Amino acid sequence: MDTAVVQGLLIPFAGTSLGAACALFMKKQMNPLLQRALTGFAAGVMVAASVWSLLIPALEQAASLGNWSFAPAALGFWLGILFLLFLDRAIPHLHMNSDEAEGPKSQFQRTTMLVLAVTIHNIPEGMAVGVVYAGYRAGNVGIGAMAALALSIGIAIQNFPEGAIISMPLCAEGMSKPKAVFYGVLSGAVEPVAGAVTIYASALLVPVMPYLLSFAAGAMLYVVVEELIPEMSEGAHSNLGTILFALGFTLMMALDVALG
Predict the structure, then answer these.
(1) 150: Cβ–Cβ under 8 A, 6 or more apart, which residues?
(2) pTM to 2 decimals?
(3) Coil, strand, or helix at residue 238?
(4) Residue 65 CB neighbours (<10 A)
(5) What is the DSSP secondary structure assignment for residue 50, as one 8-state letter?
(6) 93 has which bridge partners?
(7) What is the rounded CA–CA span in Å between residue 212 and residue 202?
(8) Which residues pair with 102 in a beta bridge?
(9) pLDDT band at residue 246, thresholds of 50, 70 and 90?
(10) With CB atoms 3.0 to 4.6 Å apart as the test, which of 23, 157, 232, 258 could cross-link to 241 if both were Cys?
(11) What tens digit of pLDDT does each residue of 193-214 get?
(12) pLDDT over 70, % of the chain
């Protein structure tokens, strides 16, 4: 795996780690309004990345199918949705601002289930970066180095507030700041791992690259609709989350077009 690919996989992880480190310098509890704003921003980045970096390239690569060029993207998209639905049901976890755990019953502590919720969230992001870099390495699917870097940077930008969103509530649950930062960083470590696994798997599956790209898009959009949009819309002044959603969407769109 060449240096550019390794760096691309680690950039999103760095974003999560830096965001988690914010807990060392901020109050234990994040302002709810700020949390909704940051969640909205992250959701906007993920939606734009799903469209410009994943679904559009998937459609372009299947253009030879003519009127059926949508089929690989549609099938891959639904497989991604169903994969995240499976993880949602199979892994015990707890979303922010919720008192009711999801998934099978377990004896896990509340803080552990909070971390697991973010870890599930990060898996499709790592897969998205991995499949785009797999396309870049293949060299014959129309994905260039700058397009792959644009997605990596975009995911890192939205991972920064996410790192803070996970580590600071852990502090509010009574966890020490260094330990909360550690768990925030740990939740992001799944991204380069998922990315590397996807790259190695994709080396054997280049002909189905459109399916893999849209699979990652479906998984990411599942997270947005199931988790991020409800969180950004909670309580009063939910319009702030909407405005930051639009900002995140615009930023990721601009990154992909300018660098891609």
Answers:
(1) 53, 255, 256, 258, 259, 260
(2) 0.83
(3) coil
(4) 13
(5) I
(6) 102
(7) 8
(8) 93
(9) very high
(10) 232
(11) 988 888 887 766 656 788 888 9
(12) 90
Cα–Cα nearest to 106, from 122, 117, 121, 118: 117
Residue listed under structure tokens 């959701």 = 43
Cβ pair 228, 43 in contact under 8 A? yes
What's the first-to-final CA gap in the chain, in angstroms? 21
Domain boundaries of the chain, sorted by first residue: 31-259
Can you read off the two tokens belonging to residue 188?
A: 């992001």
Contact present, 168 and 180 (Cβ < 8 Å)? yes
Q: Which residue type occupies 71? A: A
pLDDT per residue as tens digits for the range 133-173: 887 877 655 677 788 888 888 888 888 877 887 787 777 77
Give the mean pLDDT of the chain. Answer: 83
Structural tokens at position 126: 């790592």
Please enumerate in sequence order all residues whose Cβ is within 8 A of that of 185, keeping only pairs 6 or more positions apart, or say none: 16, 17, 20, 21, 163
